[in-house]
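Dear Dr. H.,

I hope your travels went smoothly. While you were away I took the liberty of generating a structure for the chain from your last submission, since the lab meeting agenda had it listed for discussion. I wanted you to have the full record in hand beforehand rather than looking at slides cold. The sequence, exactly as received, is reproduced here:
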Amino acid sequence: MTGAIVYSRDQLFALSRQRLLPGVRPEIPVELRRRARGCRSGAKRRAKRRKYKPSVPAIVMGNVRSLANKTDELGALVKPERDFRECSVMCFTETWLHADFPDHSASVPGFRTVRADRDVVQSGKKRGGGIAVYVNERWRNPDHVCVKECFCSPDIELLAVGMRPYYLPREFTSAIVVAVYVPPSADAEKAVDTIHSTVSGLLSQHPGAFLVITGDFNHTTLDRALPTFHQYVDCPTRNNKTLDLLYANAKDAYSATALPPLGRSDHNLILLTPRYVPLVQRLPVTTRSVRRWSQEAIDALQDCFESTDWDVLCGPHVEDLNSMTDCITEYIKFCEQTAIPSRSVHCFPNNKPWITSDLKALLNKKKAAFRSGDREEIRTVQRDLKIKLRECKDTTGGSWRPNSSRTT
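The corresponding predicted structure, in token form, is as follows:
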């Protein structure tokens, strides 16, 4: 051979087996294609998808037995561990913190610290005790946290923190976490009475709030004092005993999982994963027919009654009072259906009863004024909105029930 044989690129591809080129997708027959099976279920999977906007606050709680020497480990857990990083609230009892221990030494990055150190005078003990609540800043605005109650006695230590997160189901107006610590030597009846009176006062001030009671209860329970609350910790927290409990005023709200203890504490940490389903997703939207009362419709109904010959209508039922009542009632209903126009509306189960279509119209009007930048119009609409809110609440009594429905 006098020279080498040279092949072009296309000739080489033609001689080789059929391969996929970059950017070319294979043709897969329909019968061999993988069918979509939906998304994986479970409380933890749903919590992972929602991250910092759970339906109810995700909570990590436990008895840490001295928090001062465990802040480094807690800070190390927050960054890599999703359970700690994405939890809404962390509640710790027996922190052993005191006034000489500054807040920045007990702080955790990304969380706001709310402390209730043991009072030596009120508790009668110099050492031990203390409650700390860490609230995730990605779950709520740092300014929307306030201390509702703080109580310390030889029988109980209590800290109630009110929060307004970025997202909360419409059936709840706010979230309140009550952290308690009942010492082993405490009087159980006095401790339960204190918790009962505090919770009753909070629910009276905030009737639509989601309330959680958590902490180390030792030898006490709230099953009889608060029968409407549900207890969710079903795993041992210290050896084979369940001393750390969590109560909530919503059914099917959490699932509990045991976590390793913090440091050398003898209590396990408990992760409460939200599995609460909002009412708007749980209950179907209903459609009903409502009457639209106006002055013209009322005048038409009044003319219908004035033109009625009541003697002819009631004559055959003079001797029977019950039949006369039924006859008049049915006639009034017939006139109402004839004179008053009706329309079909959608009823959502999570709407409060005092939210009407007129009130929503004012809210939309306020949004339009805000977009236009007209401050005078915003003040005028806000004044009308305040009056309308008072009228709507006075009409319904200002009460609200979770299973109530209202037109939208």
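Two observations you may find useful: The radius of gyration is 32 Å. The longest strand covers residues 140-152.

With kind regards,
E. W.
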